[in-house]
Structure formats: structure tokens, C-alpha cells
Specification:
- With 484 residues, the chain is α/β, with parallel strands linked by helices.
- Helix content is 34%, strand content 22%.
- The protein has twelve helices and 21 strands.
- The chain has a nine-stranded mixed beta sheet, sandwiched between helices. Strands 13, 14, 15, 16, 17, 18, 19 and 20 form an eight-stranded mixed beta sheet that branches. A four-stranded mixed beta sheet has the order 2-1-3-21.
- α6 (135-150) links the parallel β4 and β5 (154-161).
- α1 (3-32) packs parallel to α3 (68-80).
- Residues 126-287 form the Glyceraldehyde 3-phosphate dehydrogenase NAD(P) binding domain.
- Belongs to the glyceraldehyde-3-phosphate dehydrogenase family.
């Protein structure tokens, strides 16, 4: 029997296992509102090939592929349990069982899912309004629509914009449907002209045309106790954002930019515990702050950071000029598609708002480059202790596999990755292990981040948190400090 024949047989065997998993995954979601994943890669709307790829993903981090023979039995046990709404990691459960002394899989699974057995199957949805519908607004819409279908906890009810012509709603729908960077919308979109609504995958999104955030009566559209996500960047202080709270039907406002004054800047996974029930205005900080803070936090906790410099190589944004022209900001008036543009970033200082122990330890600058999406942060750090390259990489690899920051920090160890490979990443930042430099107390880390989509996912995590609809994740993820 030839090697080629063996390879083909192995592939066919894995396909058969994946195809056996498909109806079980669907049944768990449909009947119990349980979403499954493989080391954080969601198995929602997947094909048999997607399932195989998710198992191969483990090799990228854990250095070996996860066999489907390990996860299929776990999946079969889950289907038989009376589970409530949850996100369950088949990969983590399967690996933990293989390393445990437990012989009975059913007992092992039940022991790890005690809190979710016999609980509610559905979440009470919370109304969400997007104020603004630009780059971030449209990605938030895509994610909210998908999350509603997945968990049912958040419900996009309306988008508020300034009307820019008779065909405004058609153009808005078209921009939601097609995206030059992130590709086409996954589903169907229709326009209800008579009622000013965009219907996306069965979600009716009311288009509200207004110039004044304080004068909108959301209750007239059946919207109540809503979370307004302001992605215009027009107001960044409490006085400006408080206008949203004057509208009927609004409970809270979340800014997708760094907040000024006493507004809490939240980096999900790091400091969401500081959110109080009484906080009615919050900030999701910036994309760069989200990209670097989780990595800096775990490095500081483990090794101690004496001081450091953060240099961000950032894709151009819509506030830059396409051709040389006047701009109120320094250098940003030069053509974005032709130049590297040196500018400043407040992200290094903003890290201290989420991680107070980093106060005064970081400096930062930014270089805007001629790419439309995906940026990189170079973390040039002096540590309190000496480190070795493989030791740091191994630790960061474990953070991405086993810790509570798994959704925030990813790790890659591939010789040919470039920026476009990270378009669509849902993580706040991805550590490039091959680029890590360690020399005594000197450590340099390279962190990729999709400054549009990765950041938007962080925003949605905050929305779900303040709405009280974040799904419980099992098995329990470790605090990074618990990692060996």
C-alpha cells in the first residue's frame, strides 16, 4: 500500500468523523443553545472541512494536531446532557480528559459542566443601537447579527445616521453587503423602503435619521433599555455622550474610542470587572490599546516591566487624506496610499488606564502605512528579570490555549505570515512567535492586530457584558497567573 493511498485513507477517515459531528453540533445549538468550539474556534455554521481545520489549528499553538477521535466522544456525551446556554470547548475538554485519571467520560464531562446542567436554554435579548455606520459601525452590525443567531443575547434594533440623500438606505445596505477588506456579508440583505428598514438574515434594523442624539424617541420603534454604541468619535467626554441618555429608550452608551475625563476605558478581558451597574457611559478604548494591553499585562505580571516603548505600524484610516491636501493634524494631510506617515498615539499611556501598574512605564509613537487594514505593534521592553526567547513564547502559547485571555491573545509561529493573513482575526492581538527577540532583560515582541475586526469583537464583548448576556464558557479558563 503506497504512502499516497495511506494519506488519502486518513483524509477520508477524518472527513467521515467530521461529517458525524455536524448534526450533533447543530442539535446542541438548536435544542440547547450550546455553542461548541475547538480551542476557541467556534463551530457555528461550519462544514466538515472547517471542523478538520479547527482541529489542525491546535497544532499551530500546541505543536500537535488534535485528533477528531478525541473530540467526537465528548460531543456525543454533551448531546445526552440537559444543558443550558453555554459555550463549550470540545478541544479543551478532550485534552483535559486525556490527561486526567478519570476513566468514565460521562462523569468527567458532567463534573466540568455542573453549573450549566439543567439551566435556562435561552438568554433574554437586549436591544442595541448603533450610532454611526462607518467602518466600525458596519462591522459591529455584522457581528451583532451573527451573535444574535448564535446565542440570542444581543439584538441589533436600529442604526442612527445623518441622511445623505434619497437613496441613503440603499447605499447603507450596499455598504453592509459588500466590503473591500472583509468581503461580502454572510447572508442575505433586503431593503424595506416603506419602513426605512434593512433586513439582514431576518434581523430588522431600523434606520433612524437624526442630527441630535438627545431628541430621538427609540420607544416609538419598540426599543427599550437600549445600549447605544457611539462609533462616530464625535463626542468623547461625558457631557457630549450624555446626550444619548436623554433620548427615550436608552439605558447606556458605549464609545468606540478612548474616553476623556472620568469615563472608564475598558479593555475586555483585562478590566471589565471595574464596570458597575450604575455606569451609564463607558469607553472601549482604542484598537491599539486593545491590541497591546493583554500582552503587556501578562508579560508584566510574569516578568515585570521596568520600562518600554511601543511603536505601532498602523494601517491608514478614513481621517487621512487620499491625496495631498490640507488637514488639521500634522502629516495626515499627505496621501495615505503613497506614504508612511509618522504620527503620535496615546495607546501607550492609555494602557495604564486598564493596567494601573503600568503607569509611567511606556512611551509610544505610530507610523501610518499604505495598507487598508491590520496593524502591528512592536513592544520593546526592559524587564525586571532575564528571559529566554523560547520560555516567553511557550508562556504566550499557553496563554492563548488555556487562559481567560484566550479571546484576546493569539499566537502564531509561521514563517510566511504577512498582514493580510490577519484580516478577520477576532482576537485583540496576535503574537508573532518567530519574531520574538530576547536578550537578558531585553524583550521585543511583535503583535499583529486587525484594527477593525479584532477591535469590533472586543467592543461586542463589552456590550454583551454590560447587557448581562455573555455566555458562560466551559471548561473554566485559567487566570494567566495560574499557568506554570
Amino acid at each position: 500500500m503506497t504512502d499516497d493511498h495511506n494519506v488519502q485513507q486518513d483524509w477520508n477517515h477524518r472527513l467521515a468523523l467530521a461529517q458525524e459531528m455536524l448534526p450533533l453540533i447543530s442539535r446542541l445549538h438548536r435544542e440547547k443553545n450550546v455553542v461548541t468550539s475547538i480551542f476557541g474556534r467556534l463551530l457555528v455554521g461550519v462544514t466538515d472541512i472547517d471542523i478538520i481545520k479547527a482541529h489542525r489549528y491546535a497544532r499551530r499553538i500546541a505543536k500537535k494536531e488534535l485528533p477528531l477521535e478525541q473530540t467526537l466522544p465528548v460531543l456525543k456525551e454533551l448531546v445526552e446532557l440537559d444543558l443550558g446556554t453555554a459555550s463549550i470547548d470540545l478541544g479543551a475538554l478532550a485534552v483535559q480528559f486525556s490527561k486526567s485519571d478519570e476513566k468514565d467520560l460521562r462523569s468527567f464531562v458532567e463534573g466540568h459542566l455542573t453549573e450549566v446542567i439543567g439551566t435556562e436554554k435561552e438568554l433574554t435579548p437586549r436591544d442595541v443601537v448603533l450610532y454611526g455606520f462607518g467602518r466600525i459601525g458596519r462591522l459591529l452590525a455584522r457581528i451583532l447579527i451573527a451573535r444574535e443567531a448564535t446565542y440570542g443575547g444581543v439584538r441589533l434594533r436600529a442604526v442612527v445616521v445623518r441622511k445623505k440623500g434619497d437613496e441613503d438606505i440603499v447605499k447603507r445596505a450596499s455598504l453592509l453587503r459588500r466590503d473591500s477588506v472583509h468581503g461580502p456579508f454572510d447572508g442575505t440583505i433586503t431593503v424595506d423602503h416603506d419602513n426605512d428598514r434593512i433586513i439582514a438574515n431576518g434581523t430588522a434594523i431600523q434606520m433612524i435619521y437624526a442630527d441630535d442624539p438627545a431628541s430621538i424617541d427609540y420607544t416609538a420603534y419598540g426599543i427599550n433599555d437600549a445600549i447605544v454604541v457611539d462609533n462616530t468619535g464625535r463626542w468623547r467626554d461625558r457631557e457630549g455622550l450624555s446626550q444619548h441618555l436623554k433620548s427615550q429608550g436608552v439605558a447606556k452608551a458605549l464609545l468606540t474610542a478612548p474616553g476623556k475625563g472620568d469615563i472608564k476605558n475598558i479593555v475586555y478581558g483585562i478590566n471589565e470587572a471595574m464596570i458597575d451597574d450604575g455606569d451609564d457611559i463607558l469607553s472601549a478604548a482604542s484598537c491599539t490599546t486593545n491590541g497591546i494591553t493583554p500582552v503587556l499585562k501578562v508579560i508584566n505580571d510574569r516578568y515585570g516591566i521596568e520600562h518600554g516603548h511601543v511603536e505601532t505600524v498602523h494601517s491608514y484610516t478614513n481621517d487621512q487624506n487620499l491625496a495631498d491636501n490640507y488637514h488639521k493634524g500634522p502629516r495626515r494631510g499627505r496621501a495615505a496610499g503613497l506614504n508612511m506617515v509618522l504620527t503620535e498615539t496615546g495607546a501607550a499611556k492609555a494602557v495604564a488606564k486598564a493596567v494601573p501598574e503600568m503607569q509611567g512605564k511606556l512611551t509610544g509613537n505610530a507610523i501610518r502605512v499604505p495598507t487598508p487594514d491590520v496593524s502591528m505593534a512592536v513592544l520593546n521592553l526592559t524587564l525586571n528579570t532575564e528571559v529566554e526567547r523560547e520560555e516567553v513564547n511557550e508562556f504566550l502559547r499557553d496563554v492563548t490555549l488555556h487562559s481567560s485571555l484566550r479571546q484576546q491573545v493569539d499566537y502564531i509561529n509561521s514563517p510566511d505570515v504577512v498582514s493580510t493573513d490577519f484580516v478577520g482575526s477576532t482576537h485583540a492581538g496576535v503574537v508573532d512567535g518567530l519574531a520574538t527577540i530576547a536578550n537578558g532583560r531585553h524583550l521585543v515582541l511583535y503583535v499583529w492586530y486587525d484594527n477593525e475586526y479584532g477591535y469590533s469583537n472586543q467592543v461586542i464583548r463589552i456590550v454583551e457584558h454590560i447587557a448581562g448576556v455573555r455566555p458562560s464558557v466551559y471548561p473554566r479558563r485559567l487566570d494567566p497567573s495560574e499557568l506554570k
